[in-house]
From TrEMBL:
This is N-acetylglucosamine-6-sulfatase. The conversion to 3-oxoalanine (also known as C-formylglycine, FGly), of a serine or cysteine residue in prokaryotes and of a cysteine residue in eukaryotes, is critical for catalytic activity. Its cofactor is Ca(2+). Keywords: Calcium, Glycoprotein, Hydrolase, Lysosome, Metal-binding, Signal. The keyword Hydrolase applies. It comes from Anabas testudineus (Climbing perch).
Length: 505
């Protein structure tokens, strides 16, 4: 289970017509020089601090500050040339909305949300890290990019992923469009494993690459620094990365009320998550101040979001994501930038992870209609003067359950096929926790219809207008004709590609 967060941003800044001077990114005694390739603009990224349910790790705050300063210096050196808009993408890991995950983020809300647009209805299309991040990168639903879960067999950073969807991710288009690209932080959970090409694999489209090997860690981790292995230890100064239910059987298995041991565990995890988010908040402030100091802030789009939500005790489930409920699929989304009026709170439609790639491409000047994506640009929602757009009445949430083929020795009575069974042998996932949902979200309806791929053919239906906490499965109360319509929409969405994902009626 990943309970850490990561901050990842893209910084697009103008490049001169001459080659760049050496750009030194200090990591201990190691240095890396920027490519001398001429670019019209450069994309820079950096990871940030993490939320801590179970502390594991990332890069150091000092490293991040050095990276950021060096990258923004790159922008200063070429500030005299014609300017396209810069873009910064910040993605936190597992940051919920429903349980107060944005409460510690006072600086971020002031510097991004209050300075631009906050989207009330932002959702992941799959509540798990690797498939969610894959949707962010490609603009595709999981059934099209093929990443099912966080494992290599689940196509997470697998050779198949690398040959297909990764080669069509938005950085590739930006790179072809004369942007210089930079990435740092957590990429995909299996990245850097030997079976996934080891640390030498640098995904196409990235000029500068500083990616965490494997899953989130605060200390004792390895980076791929432009394809070279770089190990970090456990020094804070140099290694810390950021400064009632008629429901599916998984939700019928926890003891209710929760035992004290679980409550103690969750209270501690919740406290640590908020503490770590303060570091994320500080980093956002540092980023904005740096952009302001080099007079690039007014020409920069800054996105802040998370890969998925999170739960900490809801429905007596201890601590994880992977469920179809609001606490796991709703995500924060705030954007500031040129043409975006400040202090906007937008709730006219749903914004999805698959919309980030086309929005970034739209901002960069690429004709989005020429790119194969399932999502759509939401630039028009933030800045109507820049684009005319349409709303989305329906969307898909899908997930493929993950389990262990053998029984967990700590929980022998539960048998095989389960995973994430902690604490107190309460399992958060299983092979048959595989589902697809169609969500109707408009001025008249806020409905969710979900089908499970299990022996029960289990179905859950919620009216979130009258039941925002999804306490009552109203399957047996709904007009059968409504269920039939929802089922047909779900079938269409599960097989949609490109335009057909946006035209479901």
């Amino acid at each position: 289970m990943t309970t850490n967060s990561f901050l990842h941003f893209l910084k697009l800044c103008p490049a001169s017509s001459r080659t760049f001077p050496p750009l030194c990114l200090q990591q201990g005694t190691k240095r890396n020089r920027a490519s001398a390739q001429t670019r019209r603009s450069c994309v820079c990224g950096t990871p940030g601090p993490a939320m801590a349910g179970r502390l594991r790790g990332h890069l150091s705050a000092a490293t991040l500050l050095t990276l950021l300063s060096a990258l923004l210096t790159c922008c200063v050196r070429c500030a005299h040339c014609a300017k396209p808009s810069n873009i910064v993408l910040i993605v936190a890991d597992d940051q919920d909305v429903q349980l107060g995950g944005m409460t510690p983020m006072k600086k971020t809300k002031a510097l991004i949300g209050d300075a631009g647009a906050t989207f009330v209805n932002a959702f992941t299309v799959t509540p798990l890290c690797c498939p969610s991040r894959s949707s962010i990168l490609t603009g595709w639903y999981p059934h099209n990019h093929g990443v099912r879960n966080n494992s290599l067999p689940g196509n997470c950073s697998s050779p198949l992923w690398q040959k297909g969807p990764e080669a069509n991710a938005f950085p590739v288009y930006l790179n072809k469009h004369k942007y210089q690209t930079f990435f740092a932080g957590k990429y995909l959970n299996q990245y850097g494993k030997k079976e996934a090409g080891d640390v030498g694999h640098v995904p196409p489209g990235w000029d500068q690459w500083f990616a965490l090997v494997g899953n989130s860690q605060y200390y004792n981790y390895t980076l791929s620094a432009n394809g070279k292995e770089e190990k970090h230890g456990d020094s804070y100064e140099t290694d810390y990365l950021t400064d009632l239910i008629d429901k599916h059987w998984l939700l019928r298995q926890p003891v209710n009320p929760m035992p004290n041991s679980s409550i103690t565990y969750l209270d501690n995890a919740y406290r640590k998550r908020w503490q770590t988010l303060l570091s994320v908040d500080d980093m956002v402030e540092m980023l904005v101040k740096k952009l302001e100091s080099i007079k690039e802030l007014n020409n920069t789009y800054i996105f802040y979001t998370s890969d998925n939500g999170y739960h900490t005790g809801q429905f007596s489930l201890p601590i994880d994501k992977r469920q179809l409920y609001e606490f796991d699929i709703r995500i924060p989304l705030m954007v500031r930038g040129p043409g975006i009026k400040p202090n906007q709170t937008l709730q006219v439609t749903a914004m999805l992870h698959i919309d980030l790639a086309p929005t970034i491409l739209d901002i960069s000047g690429i004709n989005v209609s020429s790119v194969n994506v399932d999502g759509q640009s939401f630039l028009s929602q933030m800045a109507p003067s820049l684009r005319n757009g349409t709303t989305r009445p329906f969307f898909l949430v899908e997930y493929s359950g993950e389990g262990n083929p053998t029984t967990d020795p700590a929980c022998p009575r539960l048998g095989p096929g389960l995973s994430q069974c902690f604490p107190d042998c309460v399992c958060e996932d299983a092979y048959n926790n595989t589902y697809a949902c169609v969500r109707t979200l408009n001025s008249k309806h806020n409905l969710q219809y979900c089908e499970f791929a299990d022996t029960e053919s289990f179905v859950e239906v919620y009216n979130l207008t009258s039941d925002p906490h999804q306490l009552e499965n109203i399957l047996k109360k709904v007009d059968p004709s409504v269920l039939q319509v929802m089922n047909q929409r779900l079938i269409k969405l599960q097989s949609c590609v490109g335009d057909s994902c946006r035209d479901v009626k």
